[in-house]
Design goal:
Pfam families: Exo_endo_phos. This protein has about 400 residues and is α+β, with helices and mostly antiparallel strands. The protein has one domain: 4-Layer Sandwich (Deoxyribonuclease I, Chain A). It has a 7-stranded mixed β-sheet, with helices on one face. Strands 6-7-8-9-13-10 form a 6-stranded mixed β-sheet, covered by helices on one side. Strands 11-12 form a two-stranded antiparallel ribbon. β11 and β12 form a beta hairpin. α9 packs parallel to α10. The N and C termini lie far apart (about 45 Å). About 45% of the residues are buried.
Length: about 400
């Protein structure tokens, strides 16, 4: 569906072509033109106010951004032939990514596919005034992971926990995971670029749940005490779920394990600090709006779809910040094989914390995304998403 939409919108700003091949040729022409005229700075949009009621003059605000920055280990010109070669080099990409982060001015960054944490990001983010926590993917050949960077002046780290989805091998019974492809989601059918990242298809017996579940995916969650005046506790969680649409049951199992761990962590923090912590869950969930993973994540908010009755409601009530404000964006990932929304920021509904602005995203016809991502304007195949929140007095 999105291929047709992209084609229709692209025709509004480019000469008319009658075939898909001609369309792809046009995309390549645009990409080559962009490579001759590289942007001096990455394209970053503004935060848009979504305040409906009168703001709390005594409230405190902070900004959170989630961004899959595309691990350099996955960046190869053969896998990204649509991208200008110069923008794929690590020196150019690393500086461009830092440029994006600098311009966004977030208090919290939830980053996925971070593969140069010790050698690059930790020291450079420290220069920008951030502290960080990080978890690398399990498995000998997995070099990327998830990081949360935060400004110590805004928040104090009081607790953290790792999430390793390989723990499902011990905690999920073999018969709880389907051994067939019946659960395959049509949503991500054409996500060829993610397949390229894990191009070595698993040749092991996927009918064995222990093999099927071992995907080496991770997440990290931490409790932060927001600076005065209220010292409110906020739990920030960051994750990257598995990509393969043929293993949709595994993604759903990961989502269930994530929320069970998040619920346990919330209870521990609530007891230890005698408070009601807010929850912000961000990441690349490799799931589009409306599929089973997405529906499960928001099912604890009392709006469970009929399709989720068999799965049960999530143990943590969550809502998508974009969905409850301006609606989910048309896309957060833009490649020749797949263009749709995969990245989200979820919030536990509360009178104590509310979103007051969201990061704007480009339209499909926007010049900076024509030719697909990454390009000279965007150093990753994903776009950053973000929101500003306001905390009121408890």
């Amino acid at each position: 569906m999105y291929k047709n939409t992209n084609l229709l919108l692209l025709h509004q700003i480019l000469p008319s072509f009658t075939t898909t091949n001609s369309y792809r040729v046009c995309r390549k022409i645009v990409s080559k033109r962009m490579s001759r005229n590289p942007a001096t700075e990455p394209k970053v949009r503004n935060f848009e106010s979504i305040i409906i009621s009168k703001p709390d003059v005594a409230g405190i605000r902070f900004r959170l951004v989630s961004y899959n920055i595309l691990a350099q280990v996955y960046v190869k010109s053969s896998l990204l032939p649509h991208s200008p070669p110069a923008c794929l080099k690590w020196k150019a990409r690393s500086l461009a990514i830092l440029g994006v982060l600098r311009k966004l001015e977030a208090d919290f960054f939830c980053l996925q596919e971070v593969d140069e944490y010790d050698s690059f990001y930790r020291k450079n983010m420290d220069t920008l005034g951030y502290s960080g926590i990080y978890i690398q993917r399990t498995g000998q050949r997995k070099r990327d992971g998830c990081a949360i960077f935060y400004k110590p002046g805004c928040a104090e780290l009081v607790a953290k926990e790792r999430i390793e989805y390989n723990d499902l091998l011990d905690s999920v019974k073999a018969d709880s995971v389907s051994c067939s492809a019946q659960e395959t989601e049509t949503s991500n059918e054409s996500k060829g670029d993610e397949k390229a990242k894990d191009s070595r298809k698993d040749s092991r017996d996927l009918s064995d749940p222990l093999v099927r579940l071992k995907r080496d995916c991770v997440g990290i969650m931490a409790a932060f005490r927001i600076s005065k005046p209220f010292h409110h506790i906020v739990i920030v969680a960051n994750t990257h779920l598995y990509w393969d649409p043929e293993l949709a049951d595994v993604k759903l199992a990961q989502a269930k394990y994530l929320l069970s761990r998040l619920a346990q962590f919330k209870t521990v923090i609530a007891d230890e600090f005698e408070c009601t912590p807010s929850i912000l869950l961000a990441g690349d969930f490799n799931s589009i709006p409306g599929d089973k993973v997405y529906e499960y994540l928001v099912s604890g908010n009392g709006k469970s779809a009929e399709t989720m009755e068999e799965e049960g409601e999530a143990p943590v009530p969550l809502c998508s910040v974009y969905e409850v404000t301006r609606g989910e964006p048309k896309f957060t990932n833009c490649t020749p094989g797949f263009t749709n929304t995969l990245d989200y920021i979820f919030l536990s509904p509360s009178d104590l914390i509310k979103p007051v602005s969201i990061l704007q995203l480009p339209q499909l016809e926007s010049p900076d995304v024509v030719g697909f991502l990454p390009n000279n304007h965007h150093p990753s195949d994903h776009l950053p998403i973000g929101a500003e929140f306001e905390i009121s007095r408890e």
